[in-house]
Specification:
Blueprint lengths: L2 E4 L4 H12 L4 E5 L4 H11 L4 H12 L2 E4 L5 H10 L5 E4 L5 H6 L1 H21 L4 E5 L33 H20 L3 E5 L2 E3 L10 H10 L4 E3 L6 E6 H13 L7 E3 L3 E4 H11 L5 E3 L15 H7 L6 H20 L1
Parallel strand pairs: 1-2, 1-4, 2-3, 4-5, 5-6, 6-10, 7-9, 8-12
Antiparallel strand pairs: 9-11
Helix pairs in contact: 1-2, 1-9, 4-6, 6-7, 8-12, 10-12
């Protein structure tokens, strides 16, 4: 068994790689802009108090191959699989986020559409055991009101029309999922899609949702927070390490009952979110932008299907926020020394 993780030194990708190291699973880490030091740091910080595990992780790091890869370039993608013919599983996370897509539609289509098709073709050509890729809650549109009841948790089979969309990014994810199911039906391959909501944690470096890092990391380091929406804005939040665990478990399960899965998470208002932070860091200073009533995302999603499939329930919001705060502080201490 050997995994390829594309976007493998990004925000979620680095956590997936660390998760595979912890399982002693060989991995090839591919990214357009490799941040190897960052990925190593996550692993070493996480196991800093366990010398035995730290030594095991270091051995895994030493055996890992890191490659520069533009997933939109079919020749480059094929070369990776030819260089590492023992790749059996792929977790595909190389994608341009919504702001990047809107800024450059051509590049967005190249990476998000052609890049995804390249990975589907590799799944067929190299007879992979499974490809799992990151879809998104944005496929459900930009407003929870499309589903009626405000307390309704959106399920995987719920329909969203194009009229209810705001992000090109979300529509691209819809096309990815549609195309994937064509490959499953016509080629007999194993492909699954995961639909994360707002993924929070320390270490986001780019994208339009940097606030999903700053809301807890800033207070951890004694800095104020300003969230770019109302205190009443409601979103679904999940901790980044839990998302990584979900991706790996779904990849490893021998047989899947479904194609698409909601990652789930905790549905809270922005005010409830910051109260959670303040419970851990009492001197937290924060404010909201009341001129923006809500984010262009759904409010809550149902994760029953995934929980049954992989037997994993994400940690509580308070546990996740506490983990992020502790990591941010440990990282600052490491940098200081």
């Amino acid at each position: 068994m050997k995994f390829l993780v594309t976007g493998g030194t990004g925000f979620i990708g680095a956590r997936v790689v660390v998760n595979l190291w912890e399982r002693n699973i060989p991995v090839v880490v591919a990214d357009l802009d490799l941040n190897i030091a960052w990925t190593k740091q996550i692993a070493l910080l996480k196991h800093r108090e366990d010398p035995v595990k730290l030594a095991e992780i270091q051995q895994q790091i030493n055996q890992t191959s890191f490659v520069n890869l533009d997933v939109s370039n079919r020749k480059q993608v094929n070369e990776v699989f030819c260089k590492f013919p023992d790749i059996t599983h792929v977790i595909h996370l190389a994608y341009l986020m919504s702001a990047e897509v809107e800024a450059d539609q051509s590049r967005g289509a190249a990476v998000n559409i052609q890049g995804m098709i390249n990975m589907f073709d590799m799944t067929v050509d190299h007879r992979l055991v499974r490809l799992v890729f990151a879809s998104s809650e944005t496929i459900y549109g930009a407003n929870h009101s499309a589903y009626g009841d405000a307390d309704y948790a959106v399920k995987e089979d719920d329909f969203c029309s194009l009229d209810d969309h705001f992000y090109t990014y979300g529509v691209m994810k819809m096309l990815n999922e549609f195309t994937a199911q064509k490959y499953i039906k016509n080629k007999g391959v194993s492909i699954a899609a995961m639909r994360p909501p707002v993924v929070y944690g320390d270490g986001r470096m780019r994208g339009s949702v940097l606030w999903a890092c700053e809301f807890a990391t800033n207070p951890a380091l004694g800095r104020p927070v300003k969230l770019p929406f109302s205190k009443e804005a409601r979103d679904c939040w999940i901790y980044v390490d839990d998302v990584a665990e979900q991706f790996v478990r779904l990849s490893l399960k021998p047989k899947l009952d479904h194609f698409a899965y909601n990652n789930g998470g905790h549905s809270v208002t922005a005010e409830e979110l910051m109260q959670t932070v303040q419970h851990i860091v009492p001197d937290t200073k924060y404010e909201f932008d009341e001129s923006v009533p809500r984010t262009a995302l759904i409010d809550r999603c149902d994760s029953t299907r995934l929980e049954r499939e992989i037997g994993f329930i994400p940690r509580s919001l308070q546990e996740g926020v506490k983990a992020q705060i502790e990591e941010a502080r440990c990282r600052q201490l490491q940098v200081s020394y």
